[in-house]
Amino acid sequence: MTCFMRPGWFNCPGAVLWYNAHMKRRGVFNASVRAAIGIIFFIGIGAGVRAFFEELPWTRTETYVATVATPVAVPESTPAAVPEASPPAPPPAPPRAPVVTLSRGSIEQADTFAVSVSGAPSAAAITATWGDRMYDLAPIGDRWIGLLGADAKKAPGNYPLTVQIGTSTITRQVAVAKRNFPVTVLAVTPELEEAGHTPLAIQANVAAENARLNSALIYTPRAYFSKPFANPLDRMSIVGAYGNIRKSGSVELQHLGLDLDATEGTPVYAVNDGVVNLAEDFVNYGKTIIVDHGLGIFSYYLHLRDINVHVGDRVTRGRIIAKSGNTGYSIAPHLHFSMRIRNASVDPLRFIETANGTLR
Fold first, then answer.
1. Residue range 243-263, pLDDT digits in tens
2. Closest to 100 in 3D by CA, of 65, 129, 61, 80
3. pLDDT tens, 271-294?
């Protein structure tokens, strides 16, 4: 150690040896430090570069952890429920075509037949044309109904019937056959002749009075009624058949009504709802009432003793509108009862039968 104390200590062999060893150790230490710093620096640069490239979208990778479900055993007797799919809604049904029904396709003179239409729109206008007449059909219940008649003098043959339902047209055929009406005597008692009821006078009076009755047949395109028709008397006993041809010499008159037995003062009923169109006293027909039931349907009541209604009155089925009598050209007390459809004379009893068979 004394070599370090003196100048030129490096000339001491021991000092030189120590110094060399010391410098060698220092060089190793410095090299180790530099190597460590280089490694740290290199690792830092590498980590930075790697982080930079990992953030790029084409170099990014993600790690997913797959979860494996543990299978659960399901007993074979209990299958897993699978919800059933609801069936598709059916397409809407097409509108049903209207159906036209006739009560009869073949009738006789003075018969009535009914036309019924089902399945027609509620707002439809429905008419029927037969021969030279047009008839309106009325909504009654769930159908449209019209009552048509063949006049007692209508020529036999086949007649087309056209039913107009909105813009649709349906055609049918209705055959009219001849009806054999009995020929009887035009009876005139001495008392009637004294009162001016001779066969020729009766013929003249009938023509004039028929013209007046026809003027009261004002067509109403709707129905006043919706129920079946009733009888005009409580007891219906025929003393004069419908359609008989009554003759006296050259005079020939057809009896277009029923003569029903009735003592004077018997209540006479309106056969259905309607409006009184005529209430007058005639030479031949005596005291007479005509009731309009709508759709061209009219009821007649002749030879009355008392009239209990006025023109324009609304009457209901079964209302007492008169009392039977023996007025005008009449052999004995009775009620003469007639029906008209669009001025066609029809058999009253056959009319009621057909109408009620349709309206019930």
1. 999 999 999 999 999 999 999
2. 129
3. 999 999 999 999 999 999 999 999
Q: Under a CB-based contact definition with an 8 Å cutoff, are residues 293 and 136 in contact? A: no
Q: Answer yes or no: are the C-beta atoms of 202 and 251 closer than 8 Å.
A: yes
Q: Where are the beta strands (DSSP E) in 197-272?
A: 238-240, 245-248, 251-254, 258-261, 267-269
Contact between 112 and 148 under an 8 Å Cβ cutoff? The reply is: yes
Strand, coil or helix: what is 15? helix
Secondary structure class of 329 (helix, strand, coil): coil
Instruction: State the amino acid at position 69 in one-letter form.
Output: A
Tokens of 333: 């007390």
Measured CA to CA in angstroms, residue 266 lies from 257, 313, 316, 319, 339 at distances of: 19, 21, 18, 13, 20
Taking only the tens place, the pLDDT of each residue in 337-347 is 999 999 999 99
Distance CA 292, CA 309 (A): 13
| 254 Cα distance to chain centroid | 44
Between strands 138-140 and 267-269, the pairing is unpaired
Task: Give the C-alpha separation, 338 to 278, whole Å.
Answer: 14
Cα–Cα distance, 253 to 187 (Å, whole number): 11
C-alpha 138/C-alpha 123 separation (Å) is 11
pTM above 0.85, yes or no: no
Closest of 359, 112, 324 to residue 235, by C-alpha: 324
Cα gap 266→123, rounded to integer Å:
44
Judge contact between 286 and 325, C-beta under 8 A.
Answer: yes
Residue for token digits 């490694």? 39
DSSP helix, strand, coil percent of the chain (3-state; round to 5) = 25, 35, 45
Question: Which helix (H) or strand (E) is 344 found in, with range?
Answer: strand 344-346
SS3 of 228, please?
Answer: coil
| Number of alpha helices (DSSP H) and beta strands (DSSP E) in the chain | 4, 22
How far is C-alpha 79 from the chain's CA centre? 50
Contacts of 23 (CB under 8 A, 6+ apart): none
